[in-house]
Amino acid sequence: xxxxxxxxxxWVADVAEHTQAARVHWCDGSEAEYxxxxxxxxxxxxxxxxxxxxxxxCYLHRSSPTDVARVEHLTFVCTESEADxxxxxxxxxxxxxxxxxxxxxxxxxxxxxxxxxPYCMGPIASPYARCGVELTDSxxxxxxxxxxxxxxxxxxxxxxxxxxxxxxxxxIGELDPERRYIMHFPSELSIMSFGSGYGGNAxxxxxxxxxxxxxxxxxxxxWLAEHMLIVGIENPRGExxxxxxxxxxxxxxxxxAMLIPPESxxxxxxxxxxxxxxxxxMDDNGQMHAINPEAGYFGxxxxxxxxxxxxxxxxxxxxxxxxxxxxTADNEPWWEDKKTGTxxxxxxxxPYDPEVGPAAHPNSRFTVSAKQNPSYSELAxxxxxxxxxxxxxxxxxxxxxxLVYQARDWAHGVLVAASVAxxxxxxxxxxxxVVRRDPFAMQPFCGYNFADxxxxxxxxxxxxxxxxxIFHVNWFRxxxxxxxxxxxxxxxxxxxxxxxxxxEGRVGAQETAIGQLPHPSDIDVSGLDVxxxxxxxxxxxxxxxxxxELGAMGEYLQGYGDRVPAALRxxxxxxxxALEN
Length: 581
Ligand code: OXD
Ligand code: MN
Hints:
The structure is a single chain. By secondary structure, the chain is an alpha/beta fold. It folds into 3 domains: about 5-45 and about 75-220, Phosphoenolpyruvate Carboxykinase, domain 1 (3-Layer(aba) Sandwich); about 225-295 and about 380-580, Phosphoenolpyruvate Carboxykinase, domain 3 (Alpha-Beta Complex), CATH 3.90.228.20; about 295-370, Phosphoenolpyruvate Carboxykinase, domain 2 (Beta Complex). A hairpin with a 5-residue loop joins β16 (about 280) and β17. It is globular. The structure holds oxalic acid and manganese (II) ion (MN).
């Protein structure tokens, strides 16, 4: 396969020459190609075969131990002016970044194959989808891109038609953390990533294209590219509401997207559209529609078991690429909290020793086609996406944030979302468990100045009277002994029900300084081990604590200076005053 689209052909030829790649392979996206890449990697040791009787089509990749997560400190947005990248991004001048990357890429693919991966983010026939081409020397990236995107021939045909695509250039280099950079050039619609094979750094369709570059493009074109799952909730009457939900990395987005209704909720159904990214457009009637640009899941493995997420547990027992899990003596994948089996080797292939560390890396991952999910919605392939009733934000907060509250209107919702803060997890390198501000769960992913992004969000209020309702949830409240107050997982449906009833105008709420909270009796807790006091605690707003939180938020906003939209300042001031009472 090759192309008659000159611009693409010439770019590939230039890169092949500059990197001195030994061969060029144009990926057609076929099953046969996938199989042959797998066989090749089994031969080279890049992949290990797992037990094919119990885990057919499953393989294990062990990454370099220093290459296990996104590297935010080495991720840059290269706009002409530093202010356009904003305090939320690391910035480098485009000319300097190009020079640095060109020198890293020079000759870096000697003896290696250069894979040309045309891909489409979103259903091939969707007007909302966007295409890209990733050039990489990693066959692991090629097979992951096959699972995560619509990759190959059909994408190439669309690119040839549209003559517009995001250019992504990737090399694992020497996997040297000292020679590792993830660079974005939004105005050139291009990405350069060197020195890492980890998903978020190397599968360029995901965070780099579908969030950083797409968020920049979305602002120019009047839509939104968000770090959100998309889920459909069908009630026993057969009515389905679609929600888009944003949570920081490793806060249970995949679990929520594929939630299993508890036994107490017979007749309810969950439909998964996406687990990580949503592209949201407004139709001519002012209704927001979302598509999932991805076609697969790159999910966190540890903690997945038949009880916490049966769908995910069953989804990953075939045709799955595991990265950095442990293995049992029977060669089955193993991870902490799997609740069955015993690890024999850890994620680095060493005999398992609990004294040394966990068997699976805390950020070990599965890559799997979305179609293997038992709750997969066929509408994930619908060109127009699904209509969104509510947008839900959340963070991992031991204290402070109640189980759920609703913003009074869009502008307030933008403030609520801009105020998201969460305890850090293993999805990025750095300290785990410290609270950091993560507006819209987009801190690592917004490809331009956050203040401009908040302004862009605010602008939708002028464009429609039928915008989704905005909510905030916190599944992670703990008591003084560190015990979770809310059972979470499937029981979160009880909270989502209140959210939907609010959207339908069928239930009331109590007004507080921070927004509208449920009356405790309006959340159905029948059959749960959650008593009245706990419910009271989960639904209490402590103004003194919130004044402190708003103080921290105010300081944070100051970092964005005059660029903070006036509407956001007004909302902020309104809440500060409400908390004084
Ligand atoms: C992810 C992340 O991998 O957010 O989805 O880090
Ligand atoms: Mn994510």
